[in-house]
Amino acid sequence: SRRGQNGGPAQRWVVQQLLPGQRVEATPEQERKIRTDLQAVVTNAELLKEMTESSSQTGDMDGMINELGDTAQQMQTRLAQLLDQITNEVLIADCLKVNDQLCESINSYKRWAQQRAVNPPQPQQQQQQ
């Protein structure tokens, strides 16, 4: 068991080492772990989308938003790899739903990043009395 290693969902999703094109049925334990990780992905995707849609012009959250955006893209890559390995149709459907949410959040992040490139954040101006 790899319980001592907690690399986050983007790094843990490998059912097992497989040859290209080879697929397997996830064990009940692997499926529970995947579902737990999928929930973490949904939470991160929702947070990323919310932050990109409501970020201020001061840039105070830009670092966190960029980190979440990078992580979301890594998670999407791993999710695609997972989808190529598993055969459980219900789990595949759940992964596809999460992938849709992740794509929506990544697209929101990309729009936010493009807007930031065109309109960089303005430093907060201190009020003068």
H-E string = HHHH
Structural class: mainly alpha
Mean model confidence by pLDDT: 82
Count of helical regions: 4
Brief digest:
With 129 residues, the protein is an all-alpha fold. Helices cover 64% and strands 0% of the residues. Helix 2 runs antiparallel to helix 3 (62-83), helix 2 (28-54) runs parallel beside helix 4 and helix 3 runs antiparallel to helix 4.
Question: Any descriptors?
Answer:
4 helices; 129 residues; mainly alpha; elongated; disordered N terminus
How is this structure best described in words?
There is one protein chain. The protein is an all-alpha fold and 129 residues long. It has four helices and no strands. It has helices spanning 9-12, 28-54, 62-83, 89-118. Helix 2 packs antiparallel against helix 3 (62-83) and helix 3 packs antiparallel against helix 4 (89-118). The longest helix is centred in the last third of the chain and has 30 residues, at 89-118. Residues 1-7 have low confidence and may be disordered.
Helix and strand arrangement:
Blueprint: H1 9-12, H2 28-54, H3 62-83, H4 89-118
Helix pairs in contact: 2-3, 2-4, 3-4
